[in-house]
Amino acid sequence: MEEFIWLFPIIFIFHDMEEIIGLGPWMAKNNIKLYKNFSTEGFALAVFEELIVCIILCILAFNSMFFKSLWLGAFIGCAFHFIVHFGQAIVLKKYIPALITSIICLPISIYIIWQCFAQITITTQLVISMVIGVLIVVINLILAQRLIGWFTINIMEKIKC
What pTM was estimated for this model as a whole? Predict the structure, then answer.
């Protein structure tokens, strides 16, 4: 499992670069508001915060099986995030920024998850810590979206004045 740990932040940032680069212009072109207060800079800050959490999880994953399974749960949450992008593209019936890297990253992520499960014995503690890992991703995603709005309102608007 340890051979896959540092692939998490690499896959994450590869995917999120497509979103950082493309989401703002795509939203403007398609007249779509995903967030009440959105700026590319705020989005990049949120991605940076998520990357820090990801790196911390990777560092901790080398310390114990609990943190390895927490890492695995977070990685599963990230893979599920790729599936959400497929759903968004299907609902909108068009390309969305994040679709191309989701297509690339999902099969790789499934392979990594499969290989990790092949190396571990599933226990109740493992399942609980994996669920906690998924919840960390979900809660952090909600906080990251709030960070986008906060940064856009409190920093970007003041810079424009």
Answer: 0.88
